[in-house]
Design a protein that fits this description.
Blueprint: H1 2-16, H2 20-33, H3 39-64, H4 84-90, H5 104-115, E1 126-132, E2 155-162, H6 167-184, E3 188-193, H7 200-204, E4 211-212, E5 215-220, H8 244-247, E6 248-250, H9 264-272, E7 283-288, E8 291-297, H10 307-312, H11 317-335, E9 340-343, E10 357-365
Parallel strand pairs: 6-7
Antiparallel strand pairs: 1-2, 2-4, 2-5, 3-5, 7-8, 8-10, 9-10
């Protein structure tokens, strides 16, 4: 018993250094996959993992008001090492990379996460591929095209989503979750949206006629000077974020949410910092006692109603943006101990007077 408590004290110390979360993830991987040769070791791994999680629940859940502080990804057994909130603060649109191929460990981690993504939270069928240059094959990205404002990226995450009512929202959610994983690995990323459905990227992953590729994400090691000139709060466009009262409301759109009590404030701030095409921030959220209700406020002259959109057949990126916001909302809420599910309330319709609003989805809180 004394040795057990000594181990526990060491794990708590590691937790304070944000190392225990990673340890638990690796331990659970052993338990789930049976990677150890001995079945007895796998069984002991499961027992130890359960013991540690129970300890976390008692030590941290009671004292800090949240069920746990360990973070699980959409794929069963996949863990983020760092807090979602710290990853949101760290992430920015990286446009300059070192040109070095990703290490095998990082490629493997991304492949494992992406391989576990088969459906979005709203049911759309999705597959995302990592196209990465390696030391052995430095020319594997040749012919995919270059982008003037992206320099030195040695990997891209390119996906396909099958046509469905919520295909673009699901695509945005799953791809943004992949961005979190890449950021957690210390990598830089940048969303690229546009006309990829008929691109060389689409041909590389054998895009089917009933699939779309609304966007891709560049991945790589961030060049040191890419952060030159970034402000402390999320980069050069940080000051251009819309204020909370423009984005979030209490019970109805006539009541801007000002001075929102914690922890809702942390969740909504996480949504506010979600990336969006051209930084339009098209999401609007009505908060009630039941949960969060998300609306898409379309930007006039931008998106599906614009002439450029119709001529070039561009993806409806503002719907992708909604999926990105959904990802920020759910992952941050779950980290704070909230549980909920995505539902569509048919009774909710556009209700922003004089504005181009579309009701999208609600995240309903589940009462323990």
């Amino acid at each position: 018993m004394g040795h057990g408590f000594k181990v526990w004290e060491e794990v708590i110390g590691a937790f304070e250094r944000q190392e225990a979360v990673y340890f638990l993830g690796m331990l659970w991987e052993v338990a789930l996959r049976g990677q150890e040769r001995s079945c007895g070791r796998a069984s002991r791994a499961r027992s130890l993992c359960a013991f540690l999680l129970n300890g976390f629940s008692l030590q941290l859940g009671v004292e800090r008001g949240t069920s746990t502080r360990w973070r699980r990804g959409m794929k069963e057994g996949f863990f983020l090492k760092n807090s979602v909130f710290s990853l949101i603060e760290r992430r920015h649109s990286c446009r300059l990379y070192t040109g070095e191929p990703l290490d095998a460990q990082e490629r493997t981690a991304l492949h494992e996460f992406l391989g576990g993504q088969r459906r979005g939270p709203l049911g759309s069928e999705i597959r995302i591929h990592l196209l990465a240059q390696t030391q052995e094959d430095p020319y594997c990205l040749r012919g995919l095209g270059t982008y003037g404002f992206i320099k030195g990226a040695t990997a891209f995450m390119a996906g396909a989503v099958r046509s469905s009512p919520y295909d673009l929202e699901d695509y945005g959610y799953v791809m943004e979750h992949a961005v979190f994983v890449a950021t957690d690995l210390g990598l830089g990323t940048c969303w690229l949206g546009g006309t990829f459905t008929k691109s060389k990227f689409a041909r590389r992953i054998h895009l089917a006629p009933d699939e779309a590729m609304p966007a891709i994400v560049a991945v790589g090691y961030e060049a040191p000077r890419d952060r030159k000139g970034l402000t402390k709060s999320h980069g050069p466009k940080g000051r251009n974020r819309l204020p909370m009262e423009k984005l979030f409301f209490w019970e109805s759109f006539g009541k801007p949410l000002v001075g929102c009590p914690s922890p809702y404030a942390k969740i909504l701030e996480a949504v506010r910092w979600a990336p969006s095409a051209s930084n339009k921030q098209p999401w609007r959220v009505v908060v009630t006692e039941e949960g969060f209700h998300l609306y898409l406020q379309r930007t006039k002259g931008y998106g599906k109603d614009s002439l450029i959109f119709k001529l070039l057949g561009l993806a409806d990126l503002q719907r992708v943006d909604m999926g990105i916001a959904m990802c920020h909302l759910e992952l941050s809420a779950k980290e704070l101990g909230f549980r909920g599910r995505w539902v569509r309330e048919e009774s909710r319709g556009p209700s922003i007077p004089g504005e181009r609003a579309e009701y999208v989805i609600s995240w309903k809180l589940e009462v323990p």
